[in-house]
Amino acid sequence: MADRQMKKLTFGFVGCGTISTAIVRGLCRQRAGAGPAAPTAGDESNVVEWPLRVSQRNEVKTAALLAEFGPGKVVICATNDEVATGCDVVVIGLTPKVALAILPTLKLRSDQLILNLVSTVTNERVRELVGIPDITVVKSVPLPPVALHAGVSVLYPRHPEMVALFEVLGKVICVDTEDHLRVLQAGSGMMGPFYKTVLTMQEWMKAQGIADADAAVFAGGFYQCVSADSAEQTSGEGLAHLIAEQTPGGLNEEAIRRHSEAGCYDGERAALDATLARLTKAAL
């Protein structure tokens, strides 16, 4: 986190999809195991000025946020303009097609900051769409676990207050170019295959006679605990060591070999290549 004093900012969310609601929940919640008097993650960040303003694009989700956290933390706005004109940071959490239609209609100011969550719309394109060439735009790629303070978010460019915001929601990686952001964004596309891997184990165990719930708890818990080791690594060498320390001739070494022979790891590289190519081609 930067050494300079963090500035308190008001936040408005245009769009109330999965990622936007995950950010809101993460900011409004206390950390797991914290006592009743503990601050919320948003308070810990030292940059959030309550309440968060959320557009009513999804009435079910906005109603759930209001019921969970109350008007002191979340205010539901009837229009996008009501969100945008009343905040310092405008969070754009829309699909690309919807963003292209809505961004030109927003009445923004050059002293505001846009947090761009739109998957394929570049920061420069956002400036063009809102018609303010010098407005600050920061692109971010968060994942749903930010709701549990366990996310890893990518930012471009680095911005002290946005780093402080996402640091309380998990880990933060700042990159130097939007091309590099897309590389890490391609990695985020492996969330679905990971869940499919967990489900495959669960289904296999169930087919061997294990109760459905027991198989689900084991599969999810197993991948959670073994991924904790990899989450602590800060180099490829560290990750490679986790593989190298598997017992020679043991069960894990055999599983690695069988996955390699089946082309599983080549398939993952191919999926990453294809995802990056799609993101690059779709960049607006």
Tell me what you see in this structure.
The chain has 284 residues and is of the alpha/beta class. The protein has helices spanning 18-28, 41-45, 59-69, 80-85, 96-102, 123-130, 160-167, 178-188, 191-207, 212-231, 236-244, 251-261, 264-282; strands spanning 9-14, 48-55, 74-77, 89-92, 113-116, 136-141, 151-156, 170-174. The protein has an eight-stranded mixed β-sheet, with helices on both faces. α3 links the parallel β2 (48-55) and β3 (74-77). The protein is globular.
Write the layout of secondary structure elements.
Elements: E1 9-14, H1 18-28, H2 41-45, E2 48-55, H3 59-69, E3 74-77, H4 80-85, E4 89-92, H5 96-102, E5 113-116, H6 123-130, E6 136-141, E7 151-156, H7 160-167, E8 170-174, H8 178-188, H9 191-207, H10 212-231, H11 236-244, H12 251-261, H13 264-282
Helix pairs in contact: 1-3, 8-13, 9-10
How would you concisely characterize the structure shown here?
The protein has helices at residues 18-28, 41-45, 59-69, 80-85, 96-102, 123-130, 160-167, 178-188, 191-207, 212-231, 236-244, 251-261, 264-282; strands at 9-14, 48-55, 74-77, 89-92, 113-116, 136-141, 151-156, 170-174. With 284 residues, the protein is α/β, with parallel strands linked by helices.
